[in-house]
Amino acid sequence: MVIRILNGKDVAGAVRYNEQKVEQGQAERIQIANYPNNEIAQKYPQFRLQLLEQYARLNPGIQKPSVHLAIAFHPTEVLRADQLKVIGEKVMSETGFGKQPYLMYQHHDTQHPHIHIVTVAVDANGNKISDKFIKNRLQKIRRRLETNYELVQAERTLLSQEPRRVGEGAEVDLQSTRQTVADKVKKILDTYSFGSVNSFKKYLGSEGITMNTKAGRSQSGITYQHINPEGANNRPVKASRLASRPTQARLTDLFSNQADRHKRECKTVETLLRKRLATYQTLTEPEYRQSLRQIGIKILEIEGAYLYINDRARVVVHETELDKGYSRQELMKHFSMETERKPIGKPESVSQNNQMADSQTQTTINRTGTQKRQVIRLNGLAIAPIDTTGAKEDTEKKTNKSKVQNQTKGQTEKPIAEEQLQGPMKKNQKKNKQRKIRLM
């Protein structure tokens, strides 16, 4: 048996490596331990990662809070998942990580059985879990477990030889490794556009290659190195020795020439993200990733930040190149535990009220220029209503006539002749009165 331990800055990177193996069918998650609710952690990947990151943030002074253990066994040994869980629990307990929340994975991508365990070196109170003499302690734990469980002893096998590591049988040839690095770097540069050297560096890390930048009086330049979760397995290669010569100066010139196109593509990615988010009432982080994959955008989480890869436009966009609202830190504030789409609007009824509410009126002047007619626009069609002016006047006359009839109802009708003579008679009576007054 061989036990390896790797401490790192990025907790998400260790979790992502194992989760990707699960998605690819090369591993399975066999245990989730010490979470407030292990069932919820099993169901929601977001919850699994968030708790580990919260623990790590309790002590910002610890530069490498991530703990990634790999335990490998001899190829001739056949161990069930429950046996691997027991051995993994023993290792965690005796190294001081037994009470920490952790994730255990069984990998199937090599000839010999092995498990990976991811946790953090910060406890619930923000204290650092001691790693003093950790390598010597691991050797003592290994020997004790080999004896207790009758496992093949590492000293008698080739697995204990250095610089071999978990998952490999021999040191990788430097020449072949250099060619692998050169091919990968060239392919990435030919496939995608980047906004900066930093974005290129982060994407390389997701492809298993680390880019080291050296600057100073004694030496400067870029080196590339093939890595894996357990550490580097070869010596770094200078950029000047690769066929594409991806040096600092050449990369800067390349990305500068692509700047205009890259800015346009960043705007396109922003638009796609905004439209996608607008279709959901609530959304989980896994569903957010899955929803974007449907439109050709993948998300990588590098050092706590999102890297958006638009495969259709062949562009890699770091979250800092977009609006702040699309950063992982901001989105995590709004992600939910469940996904719910916004309801689709129902088609409106064809009732008269709805038609009039949705219609827009527009007034136009007729040919005479003195009378205005109303034009109704309904669903994009202009409809001129029938001219009802004459009908309206007739209606008003009838209404007035009925009012007069109601007022005179019940009164005695006068003869027409009397009505015609009534006016002149009153005038004569008035004149006679005036004459009498003068004579007096």
What does this structure look like?
This protein has 440 residues and is of the alpha+beta class. It folds into 4 domains: 2-160, BirA Bifunctional Protein, domain 2 (2-Layer Sandwich); 174-257, no CATH class; 260-341, no CATH class; 352-383, no CATH class. The chain is 42% helix and 20% strand. The protein has helices at residues 11-23, 38-43, 45-57, 81-95, 134-148, 174-191, 197-206, 248-257, 259-277, 285-293, 328-332, 352-358, 389-408, 416-439, and strands at 2-8, 27-33, 66-72, 102-107, 114-120, 209-214, 221-228, 231-232, 237-238, 280-282, 297-302, 305-310, 315-318, 340-341, 360-365, 372-378, 381-383. It has a 5-stranded antiparallel sheet with strand order 1-3-5-4-2, with helices on both faces. Strands 6, 7, 8 and 9 form a 4-stranded antiparallel sheet that branches. It has a 3-stranded antiparallel sheet with strand order 11-12-13, sandwiched between helices. Helix 4 (81-95) runs antiparallel to helix 5 (134-148). The chain is extended and about 155 Å long. It starts with a strand and ends with a helix. Residues 158-173, 347-389 and 412-419 have low confidence and may be disordered.
Q: Layout of helices and strands, plus pairs?
A:
Layout: E1 2-8, H1 11-23, E2 27-33, H2 38-43, H3 45-57, E3 66-72, H4 81-95, E4 102-107, E5 114-120, H5 134-148, H6 174-191, H7 197-206, E6 209-214, E7 221-228, E8 231-232, E9 237-238, H8 248-257, H9 259-277, E10 280-282, H10 285-293, E11 297-302, E12 305-310, E13 315-318, H11 328-332, E14 340-341, H12 352-358, E15 360-365, E16 372-378, E17 381-383, H13 389-408, H14 416-439
Antiparallel strand pairs: 1-3, 2-4, 3-5, 4-5, 6-7, 7-8, 7-9, 10-14, 11-12, 12-13, 15-16, 16-17
Helix pairs in contact: 4-5
